[in-house]
Amino acid sequence: MKIYVHTDIEGCAGYVFYAQMDMSKAEVRAFNARMNALLTNEVVAACEAALESGASEVYVNDAHGPCYNIDFERLPAGCRIINGRAGHFDAWLSMLDESFDAMICIGQHAMAGTPHSVCPHSLWHVNDDLKLSETTMAAAMAGCKGVPTIMVSGDDKICAEVREKIPGVHAAVVKRAIAAQNACSLAPVEACELIRETVRAAIADRGNIPPYVVPGPLRLNISNRNPAERLIPPDVEGDEIRETPPRALHQPHPHFGDAPTDDRPSPRPRLPRPHPPRT
After folding, report:
1. Exposure winner among 155, 158, 171, 276, fewest CB in 10 A?
2. How far apart are alpha carbons 238 and 240 in whole angstroms?
3. What pLDDT, on the 0 to 100 scale, is given for residue 86?
4. Which helix (H) or strand (E) holds 245?
5. 3-class DSSP state of 189
6. What is the pLDDT of residue 268?
7. Contact 130, 123 (CB under 8 A)
């Protein structure tokens, strides 16, 4: 049995702030290291449960930001890590093909515009009447290859969306979202145990969970944090899901993930302190 573990980070227990990017500051490096440790622990729990449930191969896709977040030295034997910035959507689900028996999604977040959800961003507009998060778009990309998405972990909002679209999916709610940067999380050790239990149950039940299929023809657009702002003029059209999103993300538009829109004002910029006059 071959399992694909697709990862993000905003849905991990304890994670409530958007990633800090200024790595020149020691406190930012320490913060990112702590968040990466949370993600690594949850991924290790999922991998161990998959292997204990009979998987012979587990491929882990490190898909958040720089795609170099997971401490891969802690992965158990039998795992393969897919990491490093590949550049574009074609490699977002790198190596995922028809040979996989199931996909598991760890550390997932809600789509842009989801009320009272942690770090909501990324929204796919599909034919104007369907909205997909990163998680359900990944599920649709897997589904077009016949691979079912059987398990998701994250806050209660993303788990609710995935359950609505994929009947029978198993969900590990590791935190209750309160606002965009506020949540009530399980203790990390409890979150990891919940993920273990949910992965085991999902693999045992995988034959009853169908692949998530979004039929064509398709017309796609993307929003980042502001659901009213579509980043691609005009919409990208295609016959099926496997080939349309890659073309959408190769269109010239603002870098997906950098927009500042949020549900609360940005902190005031720190102004430089005037130097005292020399005497």
Report:
1. 276
2. 6
3. 56
4. helix 244-248
5. helix
6. 42
7. no
List of residues 6+ apart from 78 with CB closer than 8 A = 47, 51, 55, 56, 57, 58
pLDDT in tens, 122-146: 999 999 899 999 999 999 999 999 9
Q: Which amino acid, residue 260?
A: P
Q: What is the mean pLDDT of residues 100-104?
A: 98
**What is the distance between the terminal CA atoms of the chain, rounded to a whole angstrom?**
76
Omega before residue 254 within 30° of 0, cis: no
| DSSP secondary structure letters along 100-164 | -SEEEEEEE-PPTT-TT-SS---EEEETTTEEE-HHHHHHHHHHTTT--EEEEEEEHHHHHHHHH
What is the predicted pLDDT for the residue at 261?
Answer: 37
Strand boundaries in the chain, DSSP class E? 2-7, 57-62, 79-82, 102-108, 123-126, 130-132, 149-155, 170-179, 182-185, 218-223, 236-238
Take residue 92 and report the two structure tokens written for it: 């977002």
CB 222 within 8 A of CB 245: no
Beta strands 102-108 and 79-82 are unpaired
Query: In whole angstroms, what is the distance from residue 174 CA to residue 157 CA?
Result: 11
With a cut of 60, say whether residue 193 has pLDDT above it.
yes
